[in-house]
Amino acid sequence: MPRKQKEIRTDIGWSDASSITLFGKDFTNEILGHVNLGDMGFMELTGRVPTPAESRMFNAMTVTLVEHGITPSALAARMTYLGAPESLQAAVAAGLNGLGTVFVGSMEGAAKMLREAMPEPDAQADFAALAAPVVESFRQQKRIIPGLGHPFHKPIDPRTPRLLGLAKENGFYGPYVQLMEAIAVEAGRASGKVLPMNATGAVGALCAEMGFDWKICRGLGVMARAVGLVGHILEESRRPMAQEIWHRVEDVATAHMRPPQENE
Amino acid sequence: MPRKQKEIRTDIGWSDASSITLFGKDFTNEILGHVNLGDMGFMELTGRVPTPAESRMFNAMTVTLVEHGITPSALAARMTYLGAPESLQAAVAAGLNGLGTVFVGSMEGAAKMLREAMPEPDAQADFAALAAPVVESFRQQKRIIPGLGHPFHKPIDPRTPRLLGLAKENGFYGPYVQLMEAIAVEAGRASGKVLPMNATGAVGALCAEMGFDWKICRGLGVMARAVGLVGHILEESRRPMAQEIWHRVEDVATAHMRPPQENE
Amino acid sequence: MPRKQKEIRTDIGWSDASSITLFGKDFTNEILGHVNLGDMGFMELTGRVPTPAESRMFNAMTVTLVEHGITPSALAARMTYLGAPESLQAAVAAGLNGLGTVFVGSMEGAAKMLREAMPEPDAQADFAALAAPVVESFRQQKRIIPGLGHPFHKPIDPRTPRLLGLAKENGFYGPYVQLMEAIAVEAGRASGKVLPMNATGAVGALCAEMGFDWKICRGLGVMARAVGLVGHILEESRRPMAQEIWHRVEDVATAHMRPPQENE
Amino acid sequence: MPRKQKEIRTDIGWSDASSITLFGKDFTNEILGHVNLGDMGFMELTGRVPTPAESRMFNAMTVTLVEHGITPSALAARMTYLGAPESLQAAVAAGLNGLGTVFVGSMEGAAKMLREAMPEPDAQADFAALAAPVVESFRQQKRIIPGLGHPFHKPIDPRTPRLLGLAKENGFYGPYVQLMEAIAVEAGRASGKVLPMNATGAVGALCAEMGFDWKICRGLGVMARAVGLVGHILEESRRPMAQEIWHRVEDVATAHMRPPQENE
């Protein structure tokens, strides 16, 4: 019995000899020169051009995630560039490969947590009442609540008030952001620690606010970090550090195996 | 003799408990909410905030490269997502890995060709005179001139006049763009074929115009395509095609090895 | 307060001007020429040279996973090579990126399931009694039991009896393999379907048998598939299919958006 | 005019419900349990089972390339694993992405150089006469001759005499290896430095000896390193170093930007 074929279909776009259509628009005349790179990201996620408020908010969310200086992701990219300087794209890709559960997971986790606690946005909800069982459930399972606290930015992540201010200015200070705030308050109360919303918590809440599927939130981090990693490769090409890091690590990591005279 | 240590240094940025400094600016107050994602890309390449004209031009250049519908890069990303849907970042990375000499090489090649023909921008140059030996050299070596012609967009790539129009509006219709135009004219004359500047040729020339090192031009394509690939993964998650493509290819590609009765 | 430094240490190996030490052995004289590539894989996982029986078993386990013809992983590698033929390594890496939960997850899942049901190997265990609650638990959670059944190889995966035969010959037909068999029997009884152990179930059980941490089982698939993907890239370089697949998919996937006359 | 379709075809293998055919053989009964992992690599490159001599030689060549302790490639993999421990495959892929011109290029370059100097193997050739213009040409172009000298293993790479010994034992001490030796002698004479064949030079010469296309030589390194990188990920999961490296590098690399009191 032959296999039944399924449909192969894209709705993103198509081209012919004289035109390119993307998301139902004439790319050349209606998109190119009218939108910025972040807006293109918004279009990729929604299929439509953002409103001015959406454009400002979405660009701020992705700009938040572009660059954090020396990160494991940047180091992986720089190590890769050291071996394959002819493949800049492979160095960026190596850096992106590490954007998994540890670093971008909290953004995704925050969006998921909020969506599960409040499947549809409800501006009239009692956020404190919704927050309590969420915090209780995480505490019972001894799981860290995503999007709260920061190992380094203390007492607060400086990006959070800025993002929330932009949310207010642009009409995105809605029920998911408020629920995230309520969860932060409740988590602080229950633990006795200061656990303010961090930047990934804010971006995750804003992803929920904008109606993005939580599974794709990680995509904002991926888009953004690709931009930042190109900058690290450029710096590595001008002021390299990867080789020196390698040699220092090798020296330190193998010292216990080397004969004593070598270390003298 | 102990190894002499070299410096390990970044100038991109640093953080402390209450602030994040990027490219010498206070990220939270001077960058976040003030720039868009493309502007962050410009900052990664230059270390400074773009002027309004630079912002419009750079965003247009990257927007040009975000999305081309079904491409080998998008298919690699979708195939990867089929096996590892928990690792969106790895699917995007797989798609980026293919942005090598074949697809983004012409952008890089155009920028390199222009820089080599005119190491410093010279608005008074005789562009036709500069173009002639470039075209002659490529023809003698039987190499394709990067950034001219298009396998599909004929007679002209619709994005090119739009990009050149934006260049004129924003003050980037300078000597490298004009040299690229002169090379296109000369290449057409020498070959007897219509060989207009394509979109990657225009972006490559604009990279030269903006003073970017040709080695980093590929980075614009990498930044941009990461944005587009997230959209492909989102569509794949909603309307999958990778599995069906796989099965169809497997059927076709192995048919010659299968016993006859299987194909009846 | 300065950060307290942690140790940076490797025990894998070190070199000096005249020697290379790996896993405590003189690589040049004690390893090179004495072991095969699979044995090196065994050494990477255990830190020691395998016994002859371990060598035969481990090589068979990895050989099982090298090559499955046209797979999504092979297609991702070929698509990547189309764009970046100068970066063979990046094409293989793109193919590896898809070895996630869907394709190699069942191997890992089987090893984990067995380890959790029987934390220490017990040759005297009542395997049927251990199997019953495992199957019950998966059925209650409506989760698929990893390592059983096959979408295509029916009624049995031909590799399984071969792997089990090799396990018997080499002394690895132990409690974990027997527990996996008991789980297959119990799953078949409970579901009323034929659910024999598949090849990834067999390899997963053998990973448990050999004492490997279930978290590293996926590594056998990664090692093996890297070998196979090089073969696909070689074939792609000689008899390309990626470009033709791309064009066919693009035609089919965008047909619904094109004006009617284009399809006539 | 509709596009003319090209063939989509693989000769690697196919499966049906009860059998798997690879390279024309019944995988289950003729390959599995009969060959080792390195032999599968040989089959991927040649389509046939190696002879015992070929098996020993090819396994030795790949074993040479598996593991070099702390390398940039291993560090990229470890940095990636730190961020995405759920995606072991992506960590290995990140490590492979760096196997470009700098580290495996010399193997490929040696094979290419030998093939170009002696397109067909000729056991009666005057190797010194063939070597002279090769060395002269590299010197004139101020290019480094691939496969000679070593930054660290001095005066000789200990792996080279072992590989050449294995080549003699197994019948692969042929014209390409001898030409490589002649090139080393000539390069030493012309430069006045000691420039013995290194391990990648030996493997590259043996690739030529075995008849492999030089473009695929890099594949031996990719196969082999995938095996080694799994070992580094296992060690990283047990004795992590990536996080500590990250913090140390960040401290050092950003110290010049921090206010003085922070460093006190």
UniProtKB/TrEMBL annotation, chains A, B, C, D:
One of its GO terms (cellular component) is cytosol. Pathway: Carbohydrate metabolism; tricarboxylic acid cycle; isocitrate from oxaloacetate: step 1/2. Pfam families: Citrate_synt. Its EC number is 2.3.3.16. The keyword Transferase applies. Keywords: Lyase, Transferase. The keyword Transferase applies. InterPro entries: Citrate_synth-like_lrg_a-sub, Citrate_synth-like_sm_a-sub, Citrate_synthase, Citrate_synthase_sf. Belongs to the citrate synthase family. This is citrate synthase (unknown stereospecificity). The lineage of its organism: Bacteria, Pseudomonadati, Pseudomonadota, Betaproteobacteria, Burkholderiales.
